[in-house]
Amino acid sequence: MSENIEPKIVADDVVVTMEYTLTVEGEVVDSSEDNDPIEFLQGYGAIIPGLEKEIYGMAVGESKSVNVNPAEGYGEFDSEAIVDMQKSEFPEDIPMKEGVELQMIDEDGEELVAVIVEVGDKTVKLDFNHPLAGKELHFDVKITGLRTPTEEELEHGHVHFEDEEFDEEFDIDEDEDEDENGGNNHHH
Ligand code: ZN
C-alpha cells in the first residue's frame, strides 16, 4: 500500500464530505442535521452547480455561506412547464386537489414530479417546475472531510457508498443529471 497523501483543499477529483443547510426564503428546506453530511466527488456536477464552484479551495473545518441564483440552482421558473390536462386522463384514485404531487414517467423513461396547482371543472393545472425553480438558494456549508477517491470511483465519476440507504438520500440532493446513464447513482 502506498501512502496516499490526502488532499488538503477542495479540488477536482477530490471526495468531499460536507455538512450543509439549505435555506430558501428564510426557511430551512434541507439540512445534513436531519440527514447526513453529503459525500461527493468534486467536479462532476454531483451537487448544485452554483454551490460546487464556490467550495473550491476550502479546507476541512472551513465554513462558508453561499447564495446561489436560480440559474445555477434549480433553474428559472418556466411558465411553459405549467400545463392543463383533462381530468378524465387521470386514474380515478388520484385526488384532484391543489398541492397533490404526482409522479409521472415521460417518453424517455425519466421520472417527473408535477404538482396540482389548480383544479377546474374538467381540467387540472399541473406544474412541472422543480419546487425550488426560480428561487434563490442560501447554503451554509462546512467541509468535514476530504479524501482521494479510489480508482474505481474516479473512473465512474462518483462516490461509492457501503450503505444503500445513504445512496438514496444522496440522490435526492442531486441536481438534474445529464449523465447518459440517467444519474450519478450506481449501475453496477
Ligand atoms: Zn460506480
Q: How much strand?
A: 25-35%
CATH class bucket of the largest domain: Alpha Beta
Radius of gyration: 19 Å
Can you tell me the CATH topology of the largest domain? Chitinase A, domain 3
Q: What is the typical, i.e. mean, pLDDT? A: 87
Mind telling me which CATH architecture of the largest domain this is? Roll
Number of helices: 3
Please provide the count of β strands.
9
Overall shape: elongated
Explain this structure.
By secondary structure, the protein is mainly β. The protein folds into two domains: 15-73 and 134-172, Roll (Chitinase A, domain 3), CATH 3.10.50; 79-127, Thrombin, subunit H. 11% of the residues lie in helices and 32% in strands. The chain has three helices and nine strands; from the N terminus they run E-E-E-H-E-E-E-E-E-E-H-H. Strands 1, 2, 3, 4 and 9 form a five-stranded antiparallel beta sheet that branches. A four-stranded antiparallel beta sheet has the order 5-8-7-6, with no helix packed on it. The longest helix has 10 residues, at 164-173. The protein is elongated and about 65 Å long. 18% of the residues are buried. The model is unreliable at 164-185 (pLDDT under 50). The protein binds zinc ion (ZN). The site of zinc ion has 5 residues, from loops.
List keywords for this structure.
single chain, 188 residues, mainly beta, Chitinase A, domain 3, Thrombin, subunit H, 2 domains, five-stranded antiparallel beta sheet, four-stranded antiparallel beta sheet, 3 helices, 9 strands, binds zinc ion
List the helices and strands and how they pair.
Blueprint: E1 15-24, E2 27-31, E3 38-41, H1 49-52, E4 63-68, E5 82-86, E6 101-105, E7 111-119, E8 123-127, E9 137-147, H2 151-156, H3 164-173
Antiparallel strand pairs: 1-2, 1-3, 1-9, 4-9, 5-8, 6-7, 7-8
The chain binds zinc ion.
Zinc ion binds at residues 156, 158, 160, 186, 188.
